[in-house]
Records
---
Amino acid sequence: MEVRAALFALNGPDVLYRVRNASPDEKSDLVAECEIRRVGVRLKTRMRLVPKKREVRFLAERWENRSSGQADAQYGRGHAPAVFRQWEMKQGPDGRQHKVETFRFDTREMTDPLQNAVLGAGWTWRGVLKL
């Protein structure tokens, strides 16, 4: 129960993801999910709690729409940190155009707090490719 409470405690107005109980078809106990529409990315981390081993087995999944002409999202599974950025051209003080980062999202902004909550509760955080 302490690890479950630690994971639910991560929910809040300042985080981009939400930890919730999993539905039966998700084949897990908890799910953390995040959708960043600005860059067309949806992240889902499914977690299975194994109390006998004090272990959380997790499966990270990612869907990406890289271009507006693509009908289906590109799917990836497994822990693969990524950084999504958007840039704009702006005029600098020297009068020249400069590329300026206007948006940045690192997938570790979701996975690191999950991992830290599990480890902080004294449990093991183990990545798997199938739950």
Note: The mean pLDDT is 89.
---
Amino acid sequence: MNRLAIYDMDKTITRAPTWTAFLIHAAKARAPWRLALLPAAGLAGFGYLLKLIDRAGLKQATHRMMVGKALPEAELRDVAEAYADAVMAGNVLAPALARIAEDRAAGYRLVLATASHGYYAAAIGARLGFDDVIATGAKRDGQGRVLSEIEGENCYGPAKLRMVEKWLADQGIARGEAQVRAYSDHVSDAPLLEWADEGFAVNAHAPLVALAKARGWPVLDWR
């Protein structure tokens, strides 16, 4: 039997979300003049709240403004590695680290499943000791440069579960051959938590707390 522990990242393992902080980090590292575009990025966020664009569109727009339309992969890797060091230094919850260590010691294969872009989530996952990372992908152009457009689905909500199921199939693991536990802070991950054998609501907002109580999922606070 394969034992899998699937963790969300933002506000489950980290204290605060990572995307906006990454955009600011990338702008400072590469092109500080892009920081002047922060108000425009904020307007894009307002457009999302008004449902004028979806989450994927917001991610693409803010990436284009703050990181650029196309970036050599090696350059983005350097930015992501430095950002991962900053996240580990000040944005990771100690109880999350303890639970990750417990799952590892109990023989679980550790999987990070996050809506964050894979180019920095992979660097954070490596530092946390995860075996695998499932994340939002970015398109590449003919020169191998990383583009602001998303490749495939934004790894969020029902799409996250679809991506986890595809990853499981790619690993050659049948669902019936896996014992799965999943951790998340947000009700958008309800499909994943329902699918898991054990669902944990971690640092949960009110809608997830209510759902967890209805489903009998443990509610954990790592803050």
Note: The beta strands are 2-7, 70-71, 109-117, 132-140, 146-151, 178-184, 198-202, 219-220.
